[in-house]
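Recap from last week: sequence in, structure out.
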Amino acid sequence: MTRAEPPGWSSAAAGPPTGIAGLGMWVPPRVVPAEELADETSIPAAVLREKFGINQVRRAAEDCHVSDMATLAGQAALADAGLAAADIDLVIYCGSEFKDYIVWSAAAHIAHRLGCPRAQVFEIYALCAGTPIALRAARDMLLAEPDLRTALVVAASKESALVDRRNQRSRFMFNFGDGAGAAVIQRGLGRNRVLGSASLSDGSMSMDAIMPAGGSVQPASAATVAAGLHLFDVPGLEHMRERLDAGSMANFHQVVSDALRRSGRRRVDFLAPVHMKRSMFASLQKILGADRGYYLEDYGHMQAADQLVILERAREEGLLHAGDTVVLAAAGVGYTWAATVVAWGEAEEE
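Predicted structure tokens:
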């Protein structure tokens, strides 16, 4: 059911504008084409391309970690914004929890490597739904705290290393690629404004897809390593499939509709979604009435970095137009759906 807002309420009008000042991305140089993935997964290359939506993915080297990729993407975003690292007041890492180390702050390490000595730092973990939620948090914090003016939101993923490509239960993860994206957000910037957001969750699927070992339920040991329990598995495959088939498209529609209403917008000009099957992407674009969109067929699914990479690639390719209502839409295992609206270009009279 769509949630009602107070009469006349719109988060687009709550406080001064908050916009995207810079974008950056970084992907590993190694390209893994569909033919190589076919050898790893026993799924024909044609099926990977046509159904899974993968022409190729990028894969990081063993000594390349999420903090490395996130730092490089952050540097690119700062350069694009024309800012120094010392200008950053807030760093939010919203990428993969599969980081350089467990029980560790990647956000603090990334901020240190970038040279942000006075930034507040923390992490948001919503799996693949991280970026719309992190942009929402960054915008709200910038509006709520006078001492904060500039934030860096950054996400990176190396979750391809957790996928057992012989395990057909985890086949929906065969589209995983590695990479990072970043965005610099500024209060008072009337360009590329971050507007309304929405999210919803269905916790009944919280145990359907897990990495069995490494947590407190089953701590890491020689036995868990030998048994391959430190890779993703989907013990609740049928339950998750049933729940997603029944409600995922409706949930996407709801969070996008709620985010649009909270933004004072009525249409979707450009869709920046999480990477999904080609058929689902086409259906979502049609249901939302999006004129344009970007499909990560040459990158694969980079967890929460998807939307940030899409914005950068779409801008580079001239697909974003001034006045566009851009919707960043994501879904993360657990299950959480989220959307954030960006008004691209300079602010219009409203």
